[in-house]
Design a protein that fits this description.
The protein is of the alpha/beta class and 276 residues long. It folds into two domains: 219 residues, Alpha-Beta Complex (2-enoyl-CoA Hydratase, Chain A, domain 1); 49 residues, no CATH class. The chain is 54% helix and 14% strand. The protein contains twelve helices and nine strands. The strands form two sheets. A six-stranded mixed sheet has the order 1-2-3-4-6-9, with helices on both faces. A three-stranded mixed sheet has the order 5-7-8. Helix 2 links the parallel strand 2 and strand 3. The longest helix is centred in the middle third of the chain and has 21 residues. It is globular. The chain starts with a helix and ends with a helix.
Length: 276
């Protein structure tokens, strides 16, 4: 009997727990937790990750979320076993290839959209190799920290696939077309130092300090007034693809709201009192 998208999702929800969540006040650490296989995005891990992130995104008390993997990898990307077994099975379902489309859009794309569109700050703590869709999730976060053990792995071409889940968009904007094309065409892995030098990531840190640095980013974000994060994140993300006129107009509409907040008035009063 052919597998369907709905059957795979339902089975994955009841599978072995492969995502851990640690909450501390207004931030959380979400860990991909299948280290023996390098945290591949199997059906179970992907569906569980989607559910855990959706729950955090719907919680108004959460301000920042760290996304990382259990050592030694961030994520090996799409699960090859799932590709070999589930994809052919789904092609035989009444929905055909559209069931595979539902998986890519609803699960992989659904996670990427949560990372990009919600008003939480997402910090990718890339602790090891980040391949394929796993790389796409790291690039979709608001902050990307690279351990000195991180590796950027553009794995699509080697298995007969094209960049997906926003990888082509993110990498051409960060690296430029020719470098991005070269990365995908060659399949060459980038070390953490190479990736950082090319403009990927906010910080390159010693592996042992990765979580410490990620938590410090949480602290910085949590110190911001809530409205600043909620307004700034969509503003900055949209401005990358707007003209200058459109971007400045968005800023002009956003700024007056900030002037009306108590946190703005208090901050200005404190600065004035320090200046005498």
């Amino acid at each position: 009997m052919a597998l369907t998208y709905d059957a795979i999702v339902e089975s994955a929800r009841n599978g072995e727990q492969l995502v851990t969540v640690e909450r501390d006040g207004t931030h959380a650490i979400v860990t991909l937790d299948d280290p023996d296989k390098l945290n591949p995005l199997s059906a179970e891990l992907t569906v569980q990750l989607h559910g855990e992130l959706a729950a955090l995104c719907s919680d108004p008390s959460v301000r920042a979320v760290i996304l990382t993997g259990r050592d030694p990898a961030f994520s090996a990307g799409g699960d090859l076993r799932m590709m070999a077994h589930n994809a052919p099975q789904m092609l035989g379902s009444p929905a055909g290839a559209t069931d595979i489309w539902r998986w890519i859009r609803g699960q992989f794309g659904g996670i990427a959209r949560l990372l990009a569109r919600t008003d939480k700050a997402f910090i990718a703590a890339v602790n090891g190799p980040a391949a394929g869709v796993g790389l796409a999730f790291a690039l979709a976060c608001d902050v990307m920290l690279l351990s000195d053990r991180a590796r950027i792995v553009p794995a699509f071409g080697r298995i007969g696939l094209v960049p997906e889940v926003g990888n082509s968009w993110a990498l051409t904007r960060r690296l430029g077309y020719q470098r991005a094309f070269g990365l995908f065409a060659s399949g060459r892995h980038l070390s953490a130092a190479e990736a950082f030098e090319l403009g990927l990531g906010n910080e390159l840190v010693e592996h042992e300090r990765l979580l410490e640095v990620a938590l410090r980013w949480c602290e910085r974000i949590e110190e911001l007034p809530a409205h600043v994060l909620a307004i700034s994140k969509p503003l900055l993300r949209q401005c990358a693809d707007l003209s200058w006129e459109q971007a400045i107009a968005m800023e002009e509409f956003a700024e007056p709201m900030c002037f009306t907040t108590e946190s703005h008035r208090e901050a200005v009063a404190q600065l004035l009192s320090r200046s005498g």
